[in-house]
């Protein structure tokens, strides 16, 4: 059988960013308004630093006002909340994102819920979760990674997923659960799997749409995939590989790509799939937040 179509997240994200950049320029000309994004990072986790740098770079390239607030790894909860309060009150800021994971002394729930829902471009506030699960996405924010996955699924299958089985592996608040809400909203029949699921490969093989977000390199094998399925790999695992006797770091997904590409109908690569789309959706949410201030 022919190999799967590659879903090029990098190219899709570039198209989205171009449109966002144009709209941002129009907002400046017509409304004297510039979208503002604030990214808060606590500590020096190297992966988080890379993600935050990419978000800042992308915001600047779209023409946004971009702010980064960096706190020491031992920052107290009150210090973090004080920074968020300041950003909540700043009219130049339309989106606030606190990079996760946070150091142990901080309560992630309290910190994420302290961002006002109107600036919660990550979509983690309970008010935005409620809007998403009740189908009221127009006035809330959808978390960036599932929103990006959804655009890639729609590109392959269209907006109506009636009659299709969608299987999500992973039940996180950031990806698995919001992904299920979005797929359900588009009429898919949705199953969420996790570490306690019985015979995971058999459940996965039933999927016309398979979304994998577990954080285990190459866990999903070729024989877990229904021939022709659309496979969305959310995994971003750094693994060590040996190239010509030299140890190198490599970014690898949760899907065994070499096997899956022989069976799937379409698949996202890692890197160059979900990652760039997540950042593009963050820009899209921030622009939307700014636009809501003049609507
Ligand atoms: N860390 C990993 N994914 C995310 C995300 O979507 N948002 C934030 N804020 N932190 C993350």
Give me a quick take on this structure.
The protein is α/β, with parallel strands linked by helices.
Give an overview in words:
This protein has 295 residues and is α/β, with parallel strands linked by helices. It folds into two domains: 31-116, 3-Layer(aba) Sandwich (Rossmann fold); 144-274, Rossmann fold (3-Layer(aba) Sandwich). The chain contains ten helices and eleven strands. The protein has helices at residues 9-31, 46-62, 77-89, 108-113, 126-133, 144-157, 176-185, 200-204, 257-260, 274-292, and strands at 5-6, 36-42, 65-71, 95-98, 165-169, 189-193, 209-212, 230-233, 237-243, 246-252, 266-267. The strands form three sheets. Strands 1-11-8-7-5-6 form a six-stranded parallel sheet. A three-stranded parallel sheet has the order 3-2-4, with helices on both faces. It has a two-stranded antiparallel ribbon with strand order 9-10. Strand 9 (237-243) and strand 10 (246-252) form a beta hairpin. Helix 2 (46-62) crosses helix 10 and helix 6 runs parallel beside helix 7 (176-185). It starts with a strand and ends with a helix. The site of guanine has 8 residues, from strand 4 and helix 6.
Please give a handful of descriptors for the protein shown.
295 residues; alpha/beta; Rossmann fold; six-stranded parallel beta sheet; three-stranded parallel beta sheet; 18% strand; globular; binds guanine
Question: What are the SSEs and their pairings?
Answer:
Elements: E1 5-6, H1 9-31, E2 36-42, H2 46-62, E3 65-71, H3 77-89, E4 95-98, H4 108-113, H5 126-133, H6 144-157, E5 165-169, H7 176-185, E6 189-193, H8 200-204, E7 209-212, E8 230-233, E9 237-243, E10 246-252, H9 257-260, E11 266-267, H10 274-292
Parallel strand pairs: 1-11, 2-3, 2-4, 5-6, 5-7, 7-8, 8-11
Antiparallel strand pairs: 9-10
Bound molecules: guanine.
Residues 97-100, 122, 144-145, 174 line the site of guanine (GUN).
């Amino acid at each position: 059988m022919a190999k799967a179509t590659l879903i090029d997240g990098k190219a899709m994200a570039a198209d989205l960013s171009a449109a966002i950049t144009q709209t941002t320029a129009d907002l400046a000309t017509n409304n004297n308004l510039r979208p503002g994004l604030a990214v808060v990072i606590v500590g020096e986790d190297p992966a988080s630093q890379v993600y935050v740098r990419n978000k800042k770079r992308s915001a600047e390239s779209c023409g946004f006002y971009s702010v980064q607030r960096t706190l020491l790894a031992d920052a107290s909860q009150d210090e973090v909340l004080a920074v968020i309060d300041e950003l909540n009150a700043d009219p130049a800021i339309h989106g606030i994102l606190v990079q996760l994971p946070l150091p142990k002394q901080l309560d992630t729930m309290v910190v994420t819920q302290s961002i006002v829902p109107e600036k919660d471009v990550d979509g983690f506030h309970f008010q935005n979760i409620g809007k998403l699960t009740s189908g009221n996405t127009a006035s809330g924010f959808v978390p960036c990674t599932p929103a990006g996955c959804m655009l890639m699924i729609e590109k392959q299958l269209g907006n109506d997923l009636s009659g299709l089985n969608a299987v999500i592996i992973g039940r996180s608040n950031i990806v698995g659960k919001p992904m299920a809400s979005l797929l359900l909203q588009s009429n898919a029949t949705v199953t969420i799997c996790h570490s306690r699921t019985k015979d995971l490969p058999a459940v996965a093989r039933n999927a016309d749409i398979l979304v994998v977000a577990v954080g285990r390199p190459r866990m999903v094998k070729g024989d877990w995939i229904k021939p022709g399925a659309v496979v969305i790999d959310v995994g971003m695992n750094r693994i060590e590989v040996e190239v010509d006797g030299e140890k190198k770091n490599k970014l690898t997904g949760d899907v065994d790509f070499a096997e899956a590409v022989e069976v799937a109908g379409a698949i996202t690569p890692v890197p160059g799939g979900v990652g760039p789309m997540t950042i593009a959706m963050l820009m899209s949410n921030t622009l939307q937040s700014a636009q809501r201030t003049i609507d």
